[in-house]
């Protein structure tokens, strides 16, 4: 990077395509370039592909002739042999970094029996409201919902459909918390998706407190995927990523240094029609140790 580039903020421009795509498997590129791909769908595809690759590599190591006794995989996990009856699921770095556990709790309002079910997640998809904040949207996500009328819950204890209270709790918070703001909403009257340009303020430091008291994690924002455009079925994606003490903006083959305050321009619009169509879509927070 020369001085001139630093002054203008441009760090990398017009990189040859071969440089960017050199190590990317072809089928990933086919997904990324083969049409309208939603960044959130692509993220899930990518993480699952990486898990598949790591699992295949792991089974190759395991099946090799040297593997005659339980050993330790490159990631430090103890692995078991194929002929062993009890096998533990492989924990890859994708799981270690991105996976959290949610507990889905349902309480029957007749007999008060609580049914709890755990589910793992790699990201949280949350509904958004106009002129709101990420914190308030998360609060709604974790709030108690009443199941009644058409939505009654079948209680095993009562052996019948009953009204119930339902809520989600974080059982295990992930190291990296990925939050997907549901900006693309299906409008039944139009039979199509519409982009919600709602203003949703996201903080640099986020405290994740769900209904569970034993989980209270602090996170720091380190990346934002921004959707550019007013339509739901086309547009462009750019990413803002923190590197050391700086924020960098990645837009195709150009990389620019930006001020942290620029992130505020991606909150969204408080009015329905606005010239600014760049909206924060996927937020990446990293867990920070409490002091
Ligand atoms: Zn019941």
TrEMBL record:
For this protein, the record's Gene3D superfamilies field holds: Cysteine proteinases
- GO terms under biological process: protein deubiquitination
Q: Which domain of life is it from?
A: Eukaryota
Q: Which SUPFAM superfamilies match?
A: Cysteine proteinases
Q: Where is the USP domain?
A: 1-288
Provide a GO CC annotation, any one: cytosol
Q: Which residues form a coiled coil?
A: none
Q: Name one GO molecular function term.
A: cysteine-type deubiquitinase activity
Q: Name one Pfam family in it.
A: UCH
Q: Which family does it belong to?
A: Belongs to the peptidase C19 family.
Designated name of the protein:
USP domain-containing protein
